[in-house]
Specification:
alpha/beta; Rossmann fold; 3 domains; five-stranded mixed sheet; binds nicotinamide-adenine-dinucleotide
């Protein structure tokens, strides 16, 4: 760093939701902060907001009055960017508009010293593009915080194509001084976190738009089966489609229509109709007068039970896991090489639909039901039918698998059920990010756990479930859909075939 890290002067331009949080964490990290906003009074309002937060922290005993005064005295309100001369770094958090941001940085070039770092907090514009017109683009980079800044520990440090390496190194250190957990990446559409997040939201929207399951069922499965804290539709409700849909389109356009990020009509039409989520009191869910989402109760488990069950051995691990569960449930399990005429036939596919299993394994499709065994069947179970599965057999499978009181979600035929499909997509996007050297595996995983609150990062999730199984899910989905959207990343394919962790770097 060309400056003393203990005496940093940090300019923050834009004192809105993000700028005030950035000013707060910079001041808390011991930096002198110069804060300005083009709207008169906005910077002072931001400082007052931080002062109120700190006053509450003092009341609750989380901070001493001296510490509060010390940090607040670090924040100085200035009138205009022209006052940023003493800064070692200036962070821009103004309106998300390329021309306005470019004009601001061009102005700053004439104000700050030659070794002052210029950083943008843009969420959807390419860092390289914003910096392209600068006289000295080498000292320009992205520093992408998450909302609310003081709560969200992650910060993405983004090297544009012309960013010099010392700038990213310095931003990693500055991020840590702000009490953040920085990750380092190369400029990419949606950076790390917003790219990974497409696997969760867009894939789930594709599932719903194919009529496989309803919004509430997909949310339940992603929470209870895959372990996400919030379902994809609940998340989109909270964020609002006015944020999620344009971000999805931006990533798709910037990546030259990478099929993995292909947006979904279901989201576009709702966005255009103004059905945005919680903020419009209508979204994927309806809302009651108190603003709570209305979620229809699940259908109670039927009393039906099969006389006997035959489990396909085509997937050895899935067959073993399901057989063990059926034993616990007291089912009568057939041991023959083929099912008896009346048996309930259970298959445990990875990425195949129930129809493919029945046809390719020569099983009676009217008696066949598929069970997702890739995830522990502890909190909830997912089953799916072929289009011709006899309703009585579906009811027997549902009744049996719910007989210990665990909920069962019944979906229409789907290559990859719900959880297999969405998690494989997230894992594949993580692998693609590793393959194209956007970031190292540890940072990709950190981005997802800290920035998205996922139970595991994309690569760690793949390792947990088994890289070979994720590869199989994707390959079978690609076969079923004929869509390059599901083509496995070479990063994943190679590591799965070699039997090594997805975190394994190239030698
Ligand atoms: N809100 C988020 O969740 C989030 C997350 C990450 C990044 N971002 C990015 O951070 C930036 C700011 O977002 P926000 O949510 O804080 O917006 P905001 O609307 O809350 O605040 C923007 C502030 O910038 C000021 N401003 C606008 N033009 C200006 C200019 N030319 N000079 C000085 N001040 C100017 C506005 O008066 C306003 O106070 C955007 O680029 C956004 O994409 C937002």
């Amino acid at each position: 760093m060309p400056f003393d890290p203990d005496h940093l002067v940090c300019g923050v331009i834009g004192a809105g939701a993000m700028g005030r949080g950035i000013a707060q964490v910079a001041a808390t990290g011991g930096m002198r902060v110069l804060l300005c906003d083009s709207r008169a009074g906005a910077a002072q309002e931001a400082k007052d907001f931080v002062a109120k937060l700190f006053a509450r922290a003092v009341e609750k005993g989380g901070m001493t009055a001296e510490a509060k005064d010390g940090v607040l005295s670090n924040i100085e309100i200035v009138d205009a960017p022209s006052a940023m001369g003493p800064c070692n770094i200036v962070i821009e958090a103004i309106v998300e508009n390329l021309d306005v941001k470019r004009a601001l940085f061009a102005e700053l070039e004439g104000i700050v010293a030659a070794d002052c770092i210029l950083a943008t907090n843009t969420s959807s514009l390419a860092v390289t593009t914003i910096g392209a017109g600068l006289k000295a683009p080498g000292r320009f980079a992205g520093l992408h915080f998450f909302n609310p800044v003081p709560v969200m520990k992650l910060v993405e440090v983004i090297d544009g194509v012309r960013t010099e390496s010392w700038v990213g190194d310095a931003l990693m250190a500055i991020g840590r001084r702000m009490g953040r957990e920085p990750v380092r990446l190369k400029d990419a559409p949606g950076f790390l976190v917003n790219q990974i997040g497409r696997g969760f939201t867009i894939e789930s929207a594709h599932l719903a738009s194919e009529g496989i399951a309803g919004f509430a069922d997909i949310d339940r499965v992603m929470r209870d089966v895959a372990g996400f804290r919030m379902g994809p539709f609940e998340l989109m409700e909270l964020t609002g489609l006015d944020v999620t849909q344009p971000a999805s389109v931006a990533i798709y356009e910037q990546s030259y229509h990478e099929p993995r990020y292909r947006p979904v009509m279901l989201m576009k039409s709702r966005y255009e109709a103004g059905i945005l989520g919680r903020k419009t009191a209508r979204g994927f869910y309806d809302y009651d007068a108190g603003g709570k989402p209305v979620v229809a109760a699940e259908r109670p488990a039927p009393a039906a039970r099969p006389q006997s069950v035959w489990v396909s051995g085509a997937e050895a691990d899935g067959s073993a896991a399901l057989t063990a569960l059926l034993r616990e449930l007291g089912a009568s399990i057939e041991s023959g090489a083929t099912p008896s005429a009346a048996a309930l036939i259970l298959v445990t596919p990875l990425g195949d639909d129930a129809t493919t299993c029945a046809v390719e394994q020569g099983l009676d499709p009217q008696h066949t039901v598929a069970v997702d065994t890739l995830f522990p069947m502890v909190k909830r179970r997912t089953i799916m039918t072929t289009p011709v599965t006899d309703v009585a057999y579906r009811e027997m499978a549902h009744g049996l698998l719910a007989s210990d009181g665990k909920p069962v979600t019944v979906i229409r035929d789907s290559p990859g059920f719900i959880a297999q499909r969405v998690v494989a997509m997230i894992c594949n996007i993580g692998c693609a990010l590793a393959q194209n050297r956007t970031a190292v595996p540890a940072d990709i995983d950190k981005g997802a756990t800290l920035g998205l609150n996922y139970p595991h990062g994309p690569l760690a999730f793949g390792d947990l479930l088994g890289p070979a199984k994720i590869l199989k899910v994707l390959a079978n989905m690609q076969r079923a859909y004929g869509d390059p959207r599901y083509r496995p990343s070479l990063w994943l394919t190679r590591r799965a075939r070699l039997g090594v962790s997805l975190a394994t770097p190239d030698a």
